[in-house]
Structures are given as C-alpha cells and as structure tokens.
C-alpha cells in the first residue's frame, strides 16, 4: 500500500482569543476527489491521551473526547462512526510529543493529544499564539484515496490561564474532530456575529438581524464564546454528509450547483464563499460552499475551478443564494483576495455582470427539490461601470479588458487597476513602495507611474473600454500626504497589441515607469533604461517583444522627465529557452566558466517536464560554485555531475536566497563536469519537479575554498604551514570577519568602523572594513600555498546596497601583506593596517598615491566617505622584507553579471 504523509495544518480557534481550513474537504486526493476514511467512515478509530486537558482531569477529558466524537456520529444522514481504539501508551507532554507529531511512517495510532498546560503549543507556535488546536488526516493512500491515520492536538493552556468554560473546551474538541474526518472550514453566521457583517451581500441586510448566540457553525474558524459551536448546525451536518453520505441523503435533500464567474463574464473564480439561506429560516437552515473547494488548481482547464455545490437543502424550502467575502480565518481553499467585485445575490434571469440589469440586492429564490440538483446557478460578479472609478488609497479593482490581450506570453481578459499607478495581470499589487525588486518579483505589470498615489485625497481615476482599446487614466492625482499632483494614462490596443503610456503634467519627482513580466519571467538583473531617450513620436514604437523588463526609476538625483511625452511599446511576447534541448547529460549545453545565464532567457518550462544541464571543463583544486539567482515563484534544486561517469557528486535545495539553490564542490581532477537545474523535489534530475519559472544560473570556479560567512559573522582560519609575523607576535591563525576585516587573537564584528577603533582594537588588517554582507550575495573564499594565505571578497555587497565590491588580501610567511582591488560598489569604510592596543594615531594618508611597498613600523590607514573610494584596480603592498611576487596565486579572477 502506497502511503503519503500530509503536512500539519495549524488551527486558530479565536474570537477574543483565537480555531483555523471551507465547506468541503481539508485535503484532496485529486480534483473533485477528497480523501476519505474507508468504508464510508464507519468505525473511525481514535487513541486518546492519558493526561488531563486544561482543568479537566484525565477521566473527564476522556469522557468529553468520547462525547465530542459522539456529536459527529449522531448525524443521521452520514455513515461516519467512531470507536475508542485504546489509550496512547504514555501521557503526551512537551518532552515526548515528537513521535506523535513527526512520525516517519504509520504507527497504528490515531493520537488525540491533550496539551494540558499549553507547553506543546507554546513550543510550536510561540507563547500566546491563539492556536487552540490542529487536526486532520496524517497518513493517506493516494492510490485509493483512503485516510490511513489521523491525529488531533488540543491546547489546554487557555483553559488554565483564561478560564474557558467546559463547554468551550468541548467546542475545541468537536471542531478539531471535524478536521479529523477531513472536513474543512465554513462561514455562515460567524462573521455576522463576530464582525458585524451584513446578513446578505454587503452592504445589504437581506435578512432581519437576530441574536446569533448559540447559532454559530461548529466549523467556523474562530471561537465565539457562547456561540453554541459545540453543537452541530445545518452546515456542519451537510459537510459531514457530503463526505460520508447515508444512501438516502441525496434522495431526501436538495442540491444547488453553479459557478462563480469574474467580471469578464468568462473566467471562473475560486476562493469565493457562496451561501444559501432558507428565506423562512435564514440562520438555522443555511449551508455554504467555497467556489473551487474541490480542486487545488486555479487553472481554467480544471473543471472544478470556480464551481460550488450546496447540499443538504430542505425540500420545498426557498433559498436565497449569494456570494460573500471571507473576512477572517484560515482556509484550505485560498480565499480570493482582494475580493474582486461587489458581493451580490443570485438574480435568476437578470443575473449578469452588468449592475444596471443585475441589482446586487435583489434575488430570485430557488426551491430545493428532494433528490434533484438545480444546476447552472451561475453568479456573474458585477463589473464597475466605465468612467470615474472611486479608488481609495492602496486600493485595487478588477476590470474587464473587453478583448484578449497578450502580454509576456499570457493571454488576458482581466486586469487589476491599482491606485498607485499600475495595471497588473494575474493578481493585484498595490504596494506604496516602488522598488525594482517589487517590479521584478510581483505579477506581470504595466507601470504608467508607480508611486504612492492617493486618489481618495483628490483627482480622479477613470477607465473605459471599446472593441479595440482599453484605457485607464490618473488625472491630477496627488501623492500621499502631498500637494504634488500628476496626470498620465495607460492604453492597451487590440489590433496592434501595443501599449501606450501618455503623460500630462508630472509633479511627482520619484516613481517607476515601464513594463515587467514579473517573477516567473524576469531575471531580476535587467538594467533600467532612460525612457526619455527612447522613440516617442506617434509613428514610432519601442520594441519590447523580447524584453522581460523595460523601465526607469526616478529619484531625487534622477527626476522624472516624462512630462508631455507619449511612449508606445510592443508588448513582450512569449519567451523561449534557446538552450533547449538540454534535458540530460548527453544533451547538456557546453559552456565556459565563469558562466552567467542572466542575459539570455533560461527557464524550467513546463512544470513537471523539464530539467536543464550545463557541461563545462574544470581544473583540480578549484571550487565549483553553482547558484540560481532568480526564480522567485519556484523552488530550485541544483546537482553537480561528473560528466564522464554520470555520477551525481553534489546536490543542494535551499542554500541560496529564499528557496533558491547554491552548491559548492571541490574539483578533484581536471575534467568535464555538469550542473543540472530542476525544481523541488526532483533530486534525481529527471525533470518531474512541479515548479516552473525563469532562473539565472551563475557558474564559476573559485581558485580557493569558500567561507560560509553571512552578515556579521566570523571564521577563524589557520595558516597551516607557517606562523604569520605581525604586531610583535607570530600567529597560527587569523579571524576572517564578514565586514572586510582580518583580526588576530579575537574576532571583530563592528560594522561602523572609525580610525580610533582601528587603532584601539585587536591587531587588524583591513583591506576594506565596511558594513559588508556576504549573506545577500557574492563569495568569500581562501587559498593556501606553502608560504601564503589569500582571502578574497568576490562580488560582496555593502548592507542595503545593490552594487558589489571585489578585493583580496594575501598574507605571506615573510610578514608581507598585499591588498588587491577589483571594481567597487561606491563604498565608504576604512583601508589600513594597525597593531591595535591603543597605538598612536599617525594620521591618514592617501593610499592611492603610494608607490611601492609601505613599511609596517606604524599604523597606516585611509578613511573613505561614501562614493569617494578611489582604489579601484589598485594593488597595495606592505613590508617588511622584499616585496611579494607581483603575480599572486589565487588573486582576483572576477566577473560580474
């Protein structure tokens, strides 16, 4: 029997304290098919803990557990039943819970763990997290769809600290045992009672307000004191009966199904809550379904995307059906955020996306028929009318383009209008902070002028669509908390497929303008352009077909100069990896080290059917470093192969930035090697990883051994074959500190250097003492010879800056020292040498003017302010004795992407 372990789903049950997945199933085997306990859920086993639960002693906790399972077993329209399969062998506590939470294989136990004092939950989620329980299937059989084992962890700490009544402790158990059966979360009455949500689609109170005490659904994701959640309600009963139905369930109840359709009238929307209320009994006879709850996909090719199903309806009753935004809680079906359109009721023959025809507050009742399904109850979300659109600060709206528009290889009929001056595809993005990293890493974007605009404070944002064009405009819209107003527009043209940016008066002095294909397709290393120098006459078009990002960022020293201009762009088209086919060692592309793929498109496409191999020659003694330096939306995996034998010799998953990869491998012999790029968890590099996207691959052979330095870190490095004479002592080791400073006797992590600190600290050698951060990029490595030690900082960034710095320092057995500089990042900092201990200050000197070697009889240093560093490509040598060789083994061999 094949087995798979499911991830833990944390549940937060909280109103003033804090449960957490939509009607339907918590875990799915496949689209349309949830996991279920076998035999219709008959005789589901559970193994209770031996300890107490909060203020409940062991015997009371056990009795309450039996009662909580009995509440679900009492559902007459479900075949689910439960049996106590015996106590766990121990009282599970903070000291021994690991085997019950992190089992590596099924153990024959279905643990119900009472964390009596909350210590387990504090260790997992932090003190005061508000997580009161988590539960669900633990092991499943993907082949059959059967649940094999489940568990539930229950937090008794709040009962001790906050004095929960016993009924609320029972609520936690009944709720979690719903997850134990693989039920997800629902929203019916909870957010009306807890958040004052309207009783129908906001802002309409379709039904009279009533006291909802004792009438909150058990599977609502937040605990409502005295909400009666320990008792099952109509929606809870329907949810269990959907998974484990009695043979007569469907025949004795009605069903309503349909789709939720977005504002283009074509695209189905998942993650929208749909509620059906009996108009004669709206609070106690109501059921819900989240559109798309039976699929993990949002692709339109999946038939379950955007589909809802309301079951367990009372025959003969008339129901009002409406879409309702989810306000809070955790859900296994991700809620659509931000909510794409006004909430509305299903309106029968008037149902459409046009609010002039389809009044959101009106509904046509649907009569439930026993044993019958009323299908085709499709709810078309209302689009806003063209013209001025009331966007507020940091707000977004989904709009229909009116025709298919191709951008960066995708075809779109919907676009998000963001108040901060942009249009985005696939999802909203309304950050007030315009950054190049956000421009690259977000969704595909057109930025007329991305800035912190506040339409709520003045001006107007408007939109319009015709059969051949889609237009949006910002007219006299001010920056947030500013009188600076700007006017500009974006137009998408159907026939030409072009994009037009038109600028009126621009008073904002900062911002970002241009096009980006977003995180799947940008390398994150695209340089910016001067948009004002690009063609701007009406008959000239800027060719952006093969450009993943074309943009300019405006700041105080580079002010906006687009006023009065009009820019026309061809839209970026579909990108192809020109290195394909390279999906195996025999097809590996031959490259030369160092190699950088950022200038040309390279990617893993399509998901589950691609892996890329690169072959190269490497020399013995070097360290191969391979790193993926883009790929924001997918998890890369890197492998190093001996090309001659085909052996996999090194592999890495997440040692790079975020989910990106970085692997080092010491080359044992001259020869051919290969690096493979794939996605997690494709560790055999056959190309079946589920992720996809663009990556930028950096391959290089370092003439030395990498040092795993991060921000504010240090490593003590022995000289091995000699003792280094310095500051009156012979040293057997040196501390390499991440901030570009070598010290003797003790490390030093100070990132704000001053001349006084150089003179008073430990003996120090400072090729460039600055606030450097090797953890965000670049390499620090060393190389030894019989009479020297060289440490190189290669493309290391100053903290918070985006231009790297290159330098090396060599220490010779004679006591000679050499600093060698490549390109720099405009750094400030201190360069020099000091014996430390409070030596007298001789004053700084201009190191760039020195010829020959400097003697070491006294401290030598120069302090640089930002932007004044002038030692690019310089070599500084310090005595005593004869000068070291002019060619240094392990000197800089630098290349920058």
What are the SSEs and their pairings?
Layout: E1 4-5, E2 11-12, E3 28-30, E4 33-34, E5 44-48, H1 58-73, E6 82-84, H2 98-101, E7 111-115, H3 119-125, E8 131-141, E9 146-155, H4 157-161, H5 166-180, H6 190-195, H7 234-243, E10 254-261, E11 273-278, E12 281-290, E13 307-313, E14 318-324, E15 366-367, E16 373-374, E17 379-380, E18 387-389, E19 396-407, E20 410-418, E21 422-424, H8 436-441, E22 445-450, E23 460-466, E24 469-478, E25 485-493, E26 498-506, E27 511-516, E28 549-554, E29 566-570, E30 589-590, E31 595-596, E32 603-604, E33 612-618, E34 623-628, E35 636-642, E36 647-652, E37 662-666, E38 671-679, E39 693-694, E40 697-702, E41 705-706, E42 714-718, E43 724-726, E44 729-731, E45 733-737, E46 741-743, H9 755-760, E47 764-769, E48 772-773, E49 779-785, E50 788-798, E51 804-812, E52 817-821, E53 829-834, E54 853-854, E55 860-864, E56 875-878
Parallel strand pairs: 5-6, 5-7, 7-9, 10-16, 10-17, 30-33, 54-56
Antiparallel strand pairs: 1-8, 2-8, 3-4, 8-9, 10-13, 11-12, 11-14, 14-15, 18-23, 19-20, 20-21, 21-22, 22-27, 23-24, 24-25, 25-26, 26-29, 27-28, 31-40, 32-39, 33-38, 34-37, 34-40, 35-36, 35-38, 41-49, 42-45, 43-44, 45-46, 46-47, 47-53, 48-50, 49-50, 50-51, 51-52, 52-56, 53-55
Helix pairs in contact: 1-5
């Amino acid at each position: 029997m094949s087995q798979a372990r499911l991830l833990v789903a944390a549940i937060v049950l909280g109103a003033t304290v804090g449960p957490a997945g939509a009607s339907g199933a918590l875990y799915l085997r496949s689209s349309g098919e949830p996991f279920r306990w076998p035999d219709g859920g008959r005789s589901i086993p559970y193994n209770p803990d031996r300890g107490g639960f909060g203020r409940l002693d062991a015997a009371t906790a056990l009795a309450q557990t039996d009662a909580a399972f009995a509440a679900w077993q009492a559902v007459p329209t479900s075949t689910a039943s439960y049996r106590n399969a015996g106590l766990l062998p121990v009282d599970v506590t903070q000291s021994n819970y690991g085997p019950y939470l992190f089992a590596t294989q099924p153990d024959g136990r279905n643990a119900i763990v009472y964390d009596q004092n909350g210590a387990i939950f504090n260790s997992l989620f932090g003190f005061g997290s508000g997580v009161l329980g988590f539960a669900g299937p633990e092991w499943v059989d993907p082949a059959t769809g059967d649940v094999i084992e489940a568990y539930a962890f229950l937090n008794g700490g709040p009962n001790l600290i906050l004095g929960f009544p016993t009924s609320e402790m029972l609520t936690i158990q009944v709720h979690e045992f719903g997850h134990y059966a693989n039920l997800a979360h629902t929203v019916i009455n909870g957010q009306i009672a807890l958040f004052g949500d309207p009783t129908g689609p906001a802002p309409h109170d379709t039904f009279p307000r009533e006291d909802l005490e004792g009438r909150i659904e058990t599977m609502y994701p937040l605990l409502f004191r005295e909400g009666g959640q320990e008792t099952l309600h109509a929606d809870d009963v329907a949810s269990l009966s959907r998974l484990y139905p009695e043979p007569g369930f469907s025949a004795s109840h009605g069903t309503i199904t349909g789709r939720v359709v977005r504002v283009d009238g074509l695209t189905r929307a998942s993650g929208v809550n749909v509620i059906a209320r009996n108009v004669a009994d709206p609070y106690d006879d109501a059921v819900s379904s989240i559109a798309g709850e039976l699929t993990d996909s949002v692709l339109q090719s999946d038939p379950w995307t955007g589909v809802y199903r309301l079951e367990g309806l009372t025959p003969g009753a008339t129901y009002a059906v409406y879409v309702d935004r989810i306000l809070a809680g955790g859900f296994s079906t991700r809620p659509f955020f931000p909510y794409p359109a006004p909430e509305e009721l299903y309106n029968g023959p008037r149902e459409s996306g046009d609010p002039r025809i389809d009044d959101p507050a009106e509904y046509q009742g649907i009569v439930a028929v026993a044993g019958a399904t009323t299908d085709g109850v499709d709810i078309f979300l209302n689009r806003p009318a063209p013209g001025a659109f009331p966007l507020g600060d940091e707000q977004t709206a989904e709009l229909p383009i009116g025709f298919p528009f191709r951008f960066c290889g995708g075809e779109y009929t919907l676009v998000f209008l963001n108040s901060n001056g942009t249009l985005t595809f696939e999802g909203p993005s309304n950050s007030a902070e315009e950054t190049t990293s956000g421009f690259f890493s977000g969704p595909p974007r057109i930025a007329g002028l991305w800035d912190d605009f506040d339409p709520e404070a003045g001006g107007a944002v408007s939109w319009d669509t015709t059969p051949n064009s889609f237009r949006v405009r910002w007219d006299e819209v001010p920056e947030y908390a500013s009188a600076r107003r700007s006017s500009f527009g974006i137009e998408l043209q159907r026939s030409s497929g072009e994009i037009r940016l038109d600028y009126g008066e621009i008073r904002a002095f900062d911002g970002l303008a241009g096009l980006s294909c977003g995180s799947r397709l940008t390398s994150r290393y695209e340089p910016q352009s001067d948009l004002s120098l690009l063609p701007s006459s009406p008959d000239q078009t800027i060719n952006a077909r093969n450009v993943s990002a074309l943009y300019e960022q405006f700041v105080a020293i580079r002010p906006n100069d687009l006023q009065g201009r009009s820019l026309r762009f061809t839209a970026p088209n579909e990108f192809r990896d020109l290195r394909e086919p390279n999906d195996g060692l025999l097809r590996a592309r031959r490259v030369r080290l160092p190699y950088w793929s950022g200038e040309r498109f390279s990617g893993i496409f399509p998901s589950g059917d691609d892996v890329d191999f690169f072959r190269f020659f490497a020399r013995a003694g070097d360290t191969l470093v391979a790193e993926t330096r883009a790929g924001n939306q997918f998890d890369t995996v890197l492998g190093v192969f001996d090309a001659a034998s085909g052996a996999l010799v090194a592999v890495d998953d997440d040692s790079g930035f975020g989910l990106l990869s970085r692997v080092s491998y010491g080359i044992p012999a001259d020869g051919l090697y290969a690096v493979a790029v794939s996605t997690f968890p494709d560790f055999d590099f056959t190309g079946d990883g589920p992720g996809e996207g663009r990556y930028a691959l950096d391959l290089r052979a370092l003439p030395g051994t990498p040092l795993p330095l991060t921000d504010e870190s240090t490593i003590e490095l022995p000289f091995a074959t000699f003792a280094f004479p310095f500051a009156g002592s012979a040293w057997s080791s040196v501390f390499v500190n991440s901030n570009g400073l070598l010290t003797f006797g003790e490390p030093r992590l100070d990132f704000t250097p001053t001349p006084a600190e150089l003179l008073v600290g430990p003996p120090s050698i400072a090729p460039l003492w600055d606030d450097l951060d090797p953890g965000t990029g670049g390499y620090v490595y060393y190389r030894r010879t019989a009479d020297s030690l060289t440490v190189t900082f290669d493309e290391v960034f100053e903290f918070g800056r985006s231009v790297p710095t290159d330098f090396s320092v060599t220490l010779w057995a004679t006591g000679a020292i050499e600093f060698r500089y490549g390109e720099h990042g405009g750094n400030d900092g201190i360069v020099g040498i000091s014996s430390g201990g409070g030596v007298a200050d001789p004053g700084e000197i201009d190191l760039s003017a020195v010829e020959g070697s400097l003697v070491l009889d006294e401290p030598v240093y120069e302090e640089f302010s930002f932007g004044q560093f002038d030692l690019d490509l310089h070599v500084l040598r310090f005595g005593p004795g004869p000068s070291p060789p002019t060619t240094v083994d392990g000197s800089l061999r630098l290349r920058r992407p």
